[in-house]
Amino acid sequence: MTSLQPCSTLARRALSRHVSLKCQCLSAVRSFSVLNRPPPNYPGHVPLTTIERGALAIGSAFGSLVDPRRGGKSYLIAALGEATATPYFIYRLRDAMLANPTGRRILRDRPRITSQTLSLPYLRSLPDNSVGRTYAIWLDREGVSPDTRDNVQYIDDEECAYVMQRYRECHDFYHAVTGLPTVVEGELALKAFEFLNTVLPMTALSLAAMVRLKPAERERLFALHLPWAVRSGLGSEELINVYWEEQLERNVDELRAELNIETPPDLRQIRRMIRQQKKAEREKRTAQTSAQ
């Protein structure tokens, strides 16, 4: 019996430490409140309680409905994306990167897409129809910059926070490769594509903004761009695993074919033709009125 006592004592001590650590963890969970937050997990991180996260999701969803475009309420769309990405969806996207050789390299290298990391003058000098030149021309045409993306704040896991940041900064490459403009119609078409490609809830929730479209625009979205989004979104490779910085000199058509992305109907050309048609109809009516 005496020979068993030391083992029994060690077992009791180990059990005591386990219970103590468990109690400390439970105490930490209970103490996490608005007035008593844990330290941030990375620079800029803002830990949220479950209630705060829910309130952020609801408030940002209503706010971003007012203007889903980049120049309007982009910070609300960003907050909505972060509030609804956890606890499952951002981990699924991170795991998709871990399961892909290129995705793993991106997670290891952690590149950022800004005007400092990408030389826009160099991209403009690349051959026509290259990925880099297509991206630069799209930025110039839409009057936007890669520096306007908000930093991730509300995702607790530091690696998953980078995944969300990467998705956010690659969004303009998705625009450039598909050719979709930043008008509401174009953003909604791209969000539908992104939802089927990434499964992030924010991309689907953003589609509620279609209530802001005019009847003709809504009809065009359902007839042309949503069918495209379903085909390409379901059939394409996961774009989060594209190392865009290594694709800049490639032919954009070759990359589309490799990723299995169809070129959508040219929304700019469609809108231009409609404007010209309306202008011609007005001029015709004016001429008829003058003749009378």
Automatic annotation (TrEMBL):
What does it catalyze?
a 4-hydroxy-3-methoxy-5-(all-trans-polyprenyl)benzoate + H(+) = a 2-methoxy-6-(all-trans-polyprenyl)phenol + CO2
- Which membrane topology describes this protein? Peripheral membrane protein
Give the matching InterPro entries.
Answer: Coq4, Coq4_euk
Q: Which domain of life is it from?
A: Eukaryota
Q: What does UniProt give as GO cellular component?
A: extrinsic component of mitochondrial inner membrane
Molecular function terms from GO: 4-hydroxy-3-methoxy-5-polyprenylbenzoate decarboxylase activity; zinc ion binding
Q: Does the keyword Mitochondrion apply?
A: yes
Q: Which cofactor does it need?
A: Zn(2+)
Pathway participation: Cofactor biosynthesis; ubiquinone biosynthesis
What does the similarity note say? Belongs to the COQ4 family.
Protein purpose: Lyase that catalyzes the C1-decarboxylation of 4-hydroxy-3-methoxy-5-(all-trans-polyprenyl)benzoic acid into 2-methoxy-6-(all-trans-polyprenyl)phenol during ubiquinone biosynthesis.
Summary of subunit composition and partner proteins: Component of a multi-subunit COQ enzyme complex, composed of at least COQ3, COQ4, COQ5, COQ6, COQ7 and COQ9.
What is the designated name of this protein? 4-hydroxy-3-methoxy-5-polyprenylbenzoate decarboxylase
